[in-house]
Specification:
mainly alpha, 46% helix, 3-stranded parallel sheet, 3-stranded antiparallel sheet, 497 residues
Length: 497
């Protein structure tokens, strides 16, 4: 139990599926709230659903949280290792008369619920077994354990919701004598979660508003077992653009899929923290900012709408702020097994630095570097058919080849100490400026302009209509490869003419 007023929060997913966006937002809110107060954040894996829980989902949860830097302060707690603890508390409640054995069949329970509905009453358990005498109990019959909810005219159970900023009350007479242990001996969600949160000393529970109806049942259990009641905050759900709850049909995939799609963890955290919380008009947040500013009073009371375009915009901003060295590593981390890794040298740095303000994802970055990673390129007729090439085109390209031949090979120096990032970037800048200056003189001498001549060069060197800036392309591809590609392109258009 926690007795030192330390804020302690938790995230408690079930390993019955991959970690999704809604779950991550809950984890993030709990993490930054605890850290804002210098407290602790815990992870509990609620794996008592033995039929649906799978190891791969457990691994996915742990890996996803690690990728997002939502790090628990202790090793994860697994409910499947705590069954004896739940049993001891169930036995205690039975002994104290706060719970009872229920022998009702599913058919009988449904029959009672249908009767209540037909009478215009709320369908609920009738309480048939609530006051059975010992001689009326057949312990060999299948049974569950039900909690004996306190009933009485005017009795209410309530709590102040920190996210909604108001008190929420429930009429006790409308709360079932709910099941706390199933027929197979496995505790139900409401029972296990109360015991775990109490024994882990959890002080604040931040979760989705679909749990509001569970809260009065849990408060009853806290009281029945003599536990301190934590504070609750229920955040609104996340909706898709059609106003319906976010699901896979809206493109809401697992967190790991966002990683594969080239999103940065900083960007996903940034987007999720703003999905239901605000701090003035600020848009860009890093983890330290979230921890510094996060509070529950600025949680939105209305549902948040997931907007992929906004996430892409934030991702582009975070990519732009990264140094090219880090982007190379991050891009290699998510590359397809069929793709060659990016070599971490000054040539790759040149292209990544020139592209990082033009892309939205790391996948897009990798795609734009295909012309560079591959030793040779294939010219696509669907692209080249958009352009007309004549004798003058060949004259220009051959002149451009002469320009390349005349470049000082020292401009293309590759032996750069990348550990000295600032020096490496300065050297890169000087090399690119040298190529730019030489190329400007070349155009001027021949009375050509960059506007009219950029396209054939871009097509020859990259095979694409759109590419990184040409000076960086020339530097990265290198003198020899540039000449080879110009020759190949001249042969291609000569055949086509």
């Amino acid at each position: 139990m926690n007795n030192n007023n330390e804020v302690r929060t938790r995230f408690a997913p079930s390993p019955t599926g991959y970690l999704h966006i809604g779950g991550v937002r809950t984890a993030l809110f709990n993490y930054v709230y605890a850290k804002h107060f210098g407290g602790k954040f815990f992870l509990r894996i609620e794996d008592t659903d033995l039929d649906r829980s799978r190891k791969e989902f457990d691994v996915d949860i742990l890996d996803s949280l690690k990728w997002l830097s939502i790090t628990p302060d202790e090793d994860a707690v697994y409910q499947s290792n705590r069954l004896e603890i739940y049993k001891s508390y169930a036995d205690r409640l039975l002994k104290e008369g706060k719970a009872y054995l229920c022998f009702c069949s599913k058919e009988l329970i449904e029959e009672d619920r249908d009767r209540f509905t037909s009478e215009g009453k709320r369908p609920m358990y009738s309480g048939r077994c609530r006051n059975l005498k010992p001689e009326e109990k057949d312990y060999f019959m299948p049974h569950v354990i039900r909690f004996k909810a306190e009933k009485g005219e005017g009795l209410k159970t309530g709590f102040k919701d920190l996210a909604r900023g108001r008190f929420i009350n429930f009429n006790n007479n409308e709360i079932d004598d709910f099941v706390i242990v199933r027929g197979d001996g496995i505790p139900t969600y409401n029972f296990a979660v109360v015991i775990d949160d109490a024994l882990m000393g959890i002080t604040h529970i931040i979760r989705g508003d679909d749990h509001v109806s569970n809260t009065p049942k849990q408060i009853m259990l806290y009281n029945a077992m003599g536990f301190n009641i934590p504070e609750f905050a229920h955040v609104s759900m996340i909706l898709g653009s059609d106003g319906k709850r976010l699901s896979k049909r809206h493109g809401a995939a697992s967190v790991n899929q966002y990683k594969k799609d080239g999103f940065l963890p900083e960007a996903l955290n940034n987007y999720l923290i703003r999905l239901g919380w605000s701090h003035g008009n600020d848009e860009i947040f890093y983890m330290n900012d979230m921890i510094r500013y996060f509070d529950l009073k600025n949680i939105s009371k209305s549902a948040a709408v997931f907007n992929t375009e906004k996430l892409l915009w934030l991702n582009s901003r975070h990519i732009k702020s990264k140094d090219p060295f880090a982007l190379i590593d991050l891009t290699n981390d998510i590359r397809d097994v069929s793709q060659k890794p990016l070599i971490k040298d000054i040539r790759t740095v040149a292209l990544v630095e020139s592209l990082k303000s033009r892309i939205k994802t790391l996948v897009e970055l990798r795609q734009k570097l295909d012309f560079f990673v591959n030793e040779s390129i294939e010219y696509k007729s669907e692209i080249l058919n958009e352009f007309t090439f004549d004798e003058n085109s060949l004259i220009f390209l051959k002149a451009f080849k002469g320009f390349l031949n005349g470049l000082n090979s020292k401009i293309f120096e590759r032996n750069v100490d990348l550990s000295k990032k600032n020096e490496a970037l300065e050297m890169l800048k000087n090399s690119v400026e040298s190529i730019k200056g030489e190329f400007g003189d070349f155009l001027y001498r021949n009375n050509w302009t960059m506007k009219e001549k950029a396209t054939p060069i871009r097509l020859a060197l990259t095979g694409e209509k759109i590419s990184p800036p040409l000076y960086e392309v020339i530097f990265a591809v290198g003198k020899e490869r540039c000449i080879q590609r110009v020759d190949k392109f001249c042969d291609y258009i000569d055949i086509k003419r």
